[in-house]
Amino acid sequence: MGDLKKLQESAKDLHVLYVEDNDALRLNATKLFQKFFENLNIAANGEEALELYKKNRADILITDIKMPRMDGLTLSEKVKSIDPRTRVIIMSAFDDKEFLLRAIRDGVFSYLKKPVNVTELTDTLFKAVEEIRKERENQLFFMHLKSIFNYQSSMVLMMYKNKPTLANQLFLDYFEVETLEEFINEYEDLTYEFLPHDGFLYQHGEINVYDVFENNEQKLFHVKMQNPKAELRHFIAKYQTIPEQKGYAIISFDDVTELNLLRLFDEKQSLQDLREEESKALYNLLEVLQRNNAQIEVHNFYKGLSITNNALINNVSKESLFLKTTYLQLKSLQFEQKTLLVSNALPRHLECSSVKRISFEQQECELQGLHFVRHSAIERKTIRVVPEEKHTVSLFIREGKFHGDVFIEDISLDAIKLNLNAFPAGLEDNEEVILDIVLELDRKPFIINTRASFYYMSESKHSFSLVFLFINTEKTNLLKYITKRQMAIIREFKGLQNG
């Protein structure tokens, strides 16, 4: 039998899911498994186990076969469809040939017949843990090999305490030097070669480039440099320390000059409507982010509630961006059907106006309709909330009431967005109106009668969205309403997660 202490040490950061419908067996086995595994989830049937697995992925699944709601083999199939790497150990009193063949076909790691001998079970667990460890070590090894291989198309510089110690040939060729010593003699400091540009990283009074690198390891930065031929080149730089080698780091430079991205960072350049060549440049930039495993932030709003999580780019095609993100973010994407992407490697916030596909099992979404925006909802200074459905609002313009359909899209302390089925005739910019609003606060009507000024309008196929700025509106009760409404939306969204 494998050494128990070694098993405990090897398995301490692994996640295990144990499923058994027999209460007594489940209790006894749980006590045993707790000796080996710090991260242990318990379920009494297949359906409960699958939900637990979706929320807390397991490295090892230990399950009975005959269970209510969902049998163990069906559970194994569903788990394997989500992550084929999961090791499944089946413990069953049944040794039917059909069960065994199905288990083999589904890639079950081990099939143990009840009553299970503790030694046999421990040996099986030890083998599963060792196999997982070896697989992870192999993945880590090949990941580093891939990283080294990718460097061959990039300029690479190894540093020790911010001093160059090794450079690849591409780096030396760019600076037109024969050796690294020649580079060090000719250039006082590499970061002094980073030229000023809006949105780029460069050395100046408020910024020390090396401090920025060290505090943002693995992030991507835009850098502009000029070679000895006076040619300006645009690079994406990434800084990463070398594991277990204190003081050592690697900086890689990906030349993206041919993507013609420099103008996208120009404040004077309008980015609302990308031309075809700019769209191509955008997708090329996203491919660079994918190659560098760069994390990006995904922002959504559920009835005004901000939902933000990190994501990784899985794939980039001609018209689509495939992201891997959290279940929570996918739920908010499903509701809003659009999203905003933010990264320090992007010149502006990136809006995706169409969600083509969402896979909760694979934790992936396919986004289309990508374009940069100069301003976005995440820059809002005040909280906006979508009110409850049962509300009324009356709009009075020049002492006359607007008789079309009106409802509130969202409301904040400073403004309100109304949706109208027709645009009020003669309404002008900054014109004052009167708003009579009835909301619900503490299960009682909350009435707001206020003056407001017309700020701007946007038009869709069947309606108009008009924003009005409040004028001298009493804010105490409005703040109370917005706070309580936000808490109600949070509870509602949590309910969606569980559903």
What does this structure look like?
The chain is α+β, with helices and mostly antiparallel strands and 499 residues long. It has four domains: 141 residues, Rossmann fold; 104 residues, 2-Layer Sandwich (Beta-Lactamase); 104 residues, Trypsin-like serine proteases (Thrombin, subunit H), CATH 2.40.10; 104 residues, Beta Barrel (Thrombin, subunit H). It contains twelve helices and 23 strands. The strands form four sheets. It has a seven-stranded antiparallel sheet. A six-stranded antiparallel beta barrel has the order 11-12-13-16-15-14. The chain has a five-stranded parallel sheet with strand order 2-1-3-4-5, sandwiched between helices. α3 packs parallel to α4. The longest helix is centred in the N-terminal third of the chain and has 34 residues. The chain is flat. The protein starts with a helix and ends with a helix. About 2% of the residues have low confidence.
Global Rg: 29 Å
End-to-end separation? 44 Å
Task: Tell me the total number of β-strands.
Answer: 23
Number of domains: 4
Oligomer: single chain
Enumerate how many helices there are, as a single number: 12
DSSP strand content: 25-35%
Shape: flat
The fourth-level CATH homologous superfamily of the largest domain is Response regulator
Helix/strand-derived category reads alpha+beta
Uncertain runs are 267-274
Q: Overall mean pLDDT score?
A: 86
Please summarize the sheet with the most strands. Answer: 7 strands, antiparallel
The CATH architecture of the largest domain can be given as: 3-Layer(aba) Sandwich
What is the level 1 CATH name of the largest domain? Answer: Alpha Beta
Question: What share of the residues lie within helices?
Answer: 25-40%
Enumerate the strands of the largest sheet in spatial order, edge to edge or round the barrel: 18-17-21-22-23-20-19
